[in-house]
Description:
- The chain is mainly α and 438 residues long.
- The protein has 16 helices and five strands.
- It has a three-stranded antiparallel beta sheet, sandwiched between helices.
- The radius of gyration is 34 Å and the shape is elongated.
Amino acid sequence: MYSWIKLLPLLILQTILVCEVHAQSRYTGQSIQEILNLPEEDIDLGLAMLVLAKEAWPNMNVERFDNALDIMAQQVNYLLQGVEDPEARIGMMNTYLYKPGWWNDSLTFSYDIDDLEGQKKENQFINGYLSTRRGSCITMPMLWIVLADRLDWPVHAVHSTKHYFLRYEDPSLEYRNIEATTWGGYVPDEDYRADSNIPDFAIENGVYLRSLSKKEYIASLLNNQATHHYNRENDINQAVEYLELAVSFDSTLAMGWWNAGVLYQYKARQLEEELDSRIRFMTASLHMEMARQVSKQTMPTPAPRPSGNFPNTPSFPVPQPSLMGSTQGIASVFPGQIVNNHPQLVGIRQNNTPNASYQAASPTGQLIIILQEILRDDISNLQEQYYTQINLLMERSVSYREKAKALGIVFEFTEEFLRKHLESVELQRLQEQQIQRY
Length: 438
């Protein structure tokens, strides 16, 4: 009850402020591409994060979460009481998000210690973090910077090896980095660099530890979006499209280049499997037709039916020829080939009489030879079509992965990084247990 009394003036104030904010930029069904095409100063990071989340949760109510973000930002603003000092702002945001009290009704945000690598779907999108109040190194800095963006603070996302942290850009600040996964504490660049084993040339190339613009931050998240579409939606084309979009907005996104290269290789492999399947089907179809032609020549002539009436003899329908039982059916099985384009086939089809040039051979034997020739031609044409695409995909795959290596991509967490991460998570677990006791 006490907490609600304290929050009453704040909630009244929020009603006015939320209306003012909502008049500026709201969700109207825009895509992430449309958001990225806006001028940098017109991009609302909260709205961008919700647009990405809606792809994973199509039935999500964007307006509801958007309003929640507005309210949270205004609560922080109210608690600051007009103070603009950067350290005070950072401290107040950390207090509001991570310290239980009347200012947040004792509902805090923390790391999901059951999902250290952030593999859960809800730990990759902002709506999941807002709903569970448990997050990852993706969503914890995401909420921090979204609220700071709505408060117009100069906070930028920073990309480390498979990790995000934040940076408050103000020359008066001695400690500018903000590690959202450990209650917003400060970690120097040198620690990120050493713990993640980042090479010097990767820093020089701007791959890691560089303050990102809004568009570059969104572009980096498209890498996670591509992973979602590939792993959960089985949509490799959408995944590749997002990775191409990501590197078009940030050419230093080494992980985006690498993952796009890997997916291009997968697409090439899919085409190889598709080609193999079509060739096997074409070959099997030919064998069926060859067997049918041979059986026509070896099948004994049936004995004449005796005359007379047999009232108890059942009447059976006359079987109809299958698709493979005609030259029309053969043409449909071999794409790109039309029977009428082969004069020798036409001659055989008419009353089973071969052309003059093939009188020496039996009609069945000649037909089989021609079918084999058609099969070879079809397979050759098909391979040419497929291998053109496959080679282009593989060339792109190799060049993209080489680009990522040249930029200085780092693939894995080091043991030192994991050790420190586990220590901070364990400390967080102990503090949560102490809070629950009181």
